[in-house]
Amino acid sequence: RQSETLSRHVFLREIIVAVKVLDLVSQYGKDPAITSSLNRFDWYIIPQVNPDGYEYSRVSDRLWRKTRSRNITINKWCVGADANRNWGHRWGEAGANRSPCSNIYAGSRPFSEPEIVDLVTWQIPNLVIYISLHSYGQLLLSPWGYTQARPDNYADQVAFLKHNCKLLDRLLYRKMNITDPASGTSIDYMQDRGVPYIFGVELRPLDAYDTYAFSLPPNFIRPTGEEMLAGLIALGDYATVHKKL
């Protein structure tokens, strides 16, 4: 069967992402739409890409973002790299930082972080959908991240985004035109590999004024999960019809 990968919780302060991944698993066999979607694909769900960073965010620094690798500078150690800027495609270009103390440090080289090496060396057969979930901003993101240039399958990507945005319109999800570039990302890497459907999703809150940011109140948890699952099901439906999967 065709495969779909759901990669989550790269940045540890985005706790809502890790919390909601289990909904997809727990509702299998109970929710007809989720069950049907899961039955059409072999799903590979990665709830925790960065376990060392997660543990550090849990016990020491709630807003920790990076991995926990050690990087020496001229006069001090700085810890971690941005796991979503450490992938090999167009690594270290626009929107990445070469300073080890930066929150968007791209690492010493492409795939310097073992967490990312593990993902890349894990060969998933017939991968047709890759989704990278983050928070926050309520955005739907598509390649490329490092440039304003558009990929060859841009029209197909946009057709899906319009389909999904129509579904999520009342939930204020928006298609993101690139404003802040980011290079070395997982979605750009998967696009370069030729995966047909690749998206980044920024979950709740919309929060233009940073009222909640990464500290989402409990009453946001249920609607975040509901709209996320609706989007994933819509993506599977669209891919099945248009790619005859």
Question: Can I get a quick summary?
Answer:
The protein is an alpha/beta fold and 245 residues long. The chain has helices spanning 15-26, 32-40, 51-59, 114-121, 154-168, 186-193, 221-242; strands at residues 3-8, 42-46, 70-72, 77-79, 127-135, 139-141, 174-175, 197-203. It has one domain (15-243): Aminopeptidase (3-Layer(aba) Sandwich).
Tally of helical runs = 7
C-alpha Rg (nearest Å)? 17 Å
State the low-pLDDT regions, or none: 9-13
The rough form would be described as globular
Protein name: Peptidase_M14 domain-containing protein
GO cellular component, one term: extracellular space
Domain Peptidase M14: 1-239
Cofactor: Zn(2+)
Structure description:
This protein is an alpha/beta fold and 245 residues long. The protein has one domain: 3-Layer(aba) Sandwich (Aminopeptidase), CATH 3.40.630.10. The chain contains 7 helices and 8 strands; from the N terminus they run E-H-H-E-H-E-E-H-E-E-H-E-H-E-H. It has helices at residues 15-26, 32-40, 51-59, 114-121, 154-168, 186-193, 221-242; strands at 3-8, 42-46, 70-72, 77-79, 127-135, 139-141, 174-175, 197-203. Strand 3 (70-72) and strand 4 (77-79) form a beta hairpin. Helix 1 (15-26) packs across helix 7, helix 2 (32-40) packs across helix 7 (221-242) and helix 5 crosses helix 7. The termini are close together.
